[in-house]
Every structure is written in structure tokens, then in C-alpha cells.
User: Which sequence fits this backbone?
């Protein structure tokens, strides 16, 4: 498998500190379905957007402990070996993402979607990011407009067609752009 920069990756966890004396690392889940970790066989580790050398790691085990996940990789058997992997991102190829339930969306699939006002058909902008400020989260549109990602506002989402229809409350567009 190529590790070319254009290869689409999905970050599923961020490794923290070495844990214990057998080469485990504590991790924070960056997925809404962390139970999938126990089925991971192979992952890729990245730091600062670039793959580590080597980048591919075989997963020996993953288990939940308190509010963290403990990753154990084959060949990483000591504290010092684990410390060399601290603060890395655990990624998988985008093609290995889990299937989602109906009306669920990957945040990465929302980026690039054109947003239109459902009532007028007027183009609002393009989703450029996501702000997780608690609650439903906010779609960042054109880098400046924030739209709550709630069913009552984002009423039609088609990530394949890259379109989102929204019911914008009166004045929200102008209020956010001031």
C-alpha cells in the first residue's frame, strides 16, 4: 500500500503516553465507534501530517482502560520503544472506514459540500471545516460562517453530490458575517 501524500487517510485515535512496561500506549479515540479498535489488524502512524518510518504497524491488542484505549503494537515491547511513538496519529485508509447508520455522516465528507438555503435556493457557501464547541457542532462555511449541524437546520445532506440544504433562521447569515 502506497503512502503517497494524496492518499486519503482517516485518523481514528491519537496516541498519548507510554503506559505500563510492556510497550503499550494510551490513546484518545477520535471516532464515534471506538469498539472497532478491537478489530483493527493494521494501522499507520503519522506525526505532523507525515508517516513515521516505518509507518505500518500490526495491532497486537487494543483494550479500554478507564477513559482511554490501550494500544499494543507487534514489535513494540518496551517503554522506550513506546515512547518513540507518543503523540502520533493512528490512521487507516479511508476505504476501511465503517459503514454508517442512516443519517450519519463522516465529518471529512461534509467538507467541500455546497450549502444552499432551502427556502430561496441561494448559495450560502462551501463547508470548509468543523467546529466542535459542544452541542451539535458547527459547520464552518467559507471559513467565516458558522451553521449549527442540527437536523432542524441541516435538513437535506447528500455527501455524494456534495450538497447540503439548510433552513437558515432569519438573519443568521448576516449575523455570522459581521
Assistant:
Amino acid at each position: 500500500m502506497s503512502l503517497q501524500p494524496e492518499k486519503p487517510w482517516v485518523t481514528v485515535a491519537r496516541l498519548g503516553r507510554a503506559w505500563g512496561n510492556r510497550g503499550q500506549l494510551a490513546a484518545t479515540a477520535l471516532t464515534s465507534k471506538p469498539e472497532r479498535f478491537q478489530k483493527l489488524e493494521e494501522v499507520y502512524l503519522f506525526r505532523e501530517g507525515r508517516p513515521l518510518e516505518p509507518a505500518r504497524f500490526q495491532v497486537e491488542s487494543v483494550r479500554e482502560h478507564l477513559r482511554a484505549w490501550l494500544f499494543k503494537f507487534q514489535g513494540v515491547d518496551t517503554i522506550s520503544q513506546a515512547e518513540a511513538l507518543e503523540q502520533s496519529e493512528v490512521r487507516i485508509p479511508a476505504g476501511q472506514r465503517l459503514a454508517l447508520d442512516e443519517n450519519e455522516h463522516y465529518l471529512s465528507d461534509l467538507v467541500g459540500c455546497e450549502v444552499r438555503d432551502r427556502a430561496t435556493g441561494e448559495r450560502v457557501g462551501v463547508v470548509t471545516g468543523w467546529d466542535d464547541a459542544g452541542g451539535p457542532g458547527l459547520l464552518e462555511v467559507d471559513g467565516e460562517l458558522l451553521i449549527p449541524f442540527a437536523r432542524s437546520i441541516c435538513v437535506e445532506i447528500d455527501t455524494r453530490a456534495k450538497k447540503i440544504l439548510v433552513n437558515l433562521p432569519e438573519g443568521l447569515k448576516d449575523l455570522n458575517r459581521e
The domain at 107-177 is CATH 2.30.30.240 (SH3 type barrels.).
